[in-house]
Amino acid sequence: MNIIEVNNLTVKYDNVTALDDINIKIKKGEFLGVIGPNGGGKTTLLKSLLGLIKPNIGEVKINDHRPIGYVPQFSNFDRTFPIKVLDVILLGKLEGKIKFLHRFKNTDINKAEEIMHSLGIYKFRNRQISQLSGGQLQKVLIARALIMEPEIMILDEPTASLDANSKTEIYNLLKRLNEDKTIIVVSHDVGVINSYIDTVACLNKKMHYHGDDTKLSKRTLENVYGCPVELIAHGNTPHRVLHVHDEEGEEI
């Protein structure tokens, strides 16, 4: 069963094409990784899936009645805002306009505590978010999405700026959540993509690759990034994007 269907999706900003005739079908329970260069349309694709952008051509079909759980990059989250972990998670329960002095139900608080226990962050429930590490804050943002009880989770660079141990911890968590949720992750980490996901979509305005084979070849990556890519094997096959070279071999 396809839980998401993207058909002939084209999105333009004025005369600039951000997405060009994108077609992709995402199955229920799939763990999809989306990779591609900066400016390749990954954020626009996420906004289209979330219904925040109306396409110029084509459509996005979401075959699920529940809200989509969205986890932004934690580096874009204002960590100086004076708010506790529990309160951040409860924000996921707010719908529409926020009433002054809004009080959450006990069932909401109990649900938030249940999620915190499952993610191993309950001990931080009363801690200010400014006191959290990057990995801890990322778990809090995941918890905020989970309290909506979504069928679909969309995460934008969930391990950006995290150390290797935190990356592994976050992706092991996502793999566990994938047991009963559809997961879509945007990432620059090809090593992670190869290690955890079921399918991969390579995006640079056009969708260059999508299928059940998650083994990314050097040629596939070069087609996507538009420049030479060096694959360096260190277990999970991380990569390094090299400078574009001219015909004489000089860097451009």
UniProtKB/TrEMBL annotation:
This is Metal ABC transporter ATP-binding protein. One of its GO terms (molecular function) is ATP hydrolysis activity. Signal peptide: none annotated. Residues 4-230 form the ABC transporter domain. It comes from Senegalia massiliensis. Coiled coil: none annotated. PROSITE patterns: ABC_TRANSPORTER_1, ABC_TRANSPORTER_2. Keywords: ATP-binding, Nucleotide-binding, Transport. Belongs to the ABC transporter superfamily. The lineage of its organism: Bacteria, Bacillati, Bacillota, Clostridia, Eubacteriales. It comes from the Bacteria. InterPro entries: AAA+_ATPase, ABC_transporter-like_ATP-bd, ABC_transporter-like_CS, Metal_Ion_Import_ABC, P-loop_NTPase.
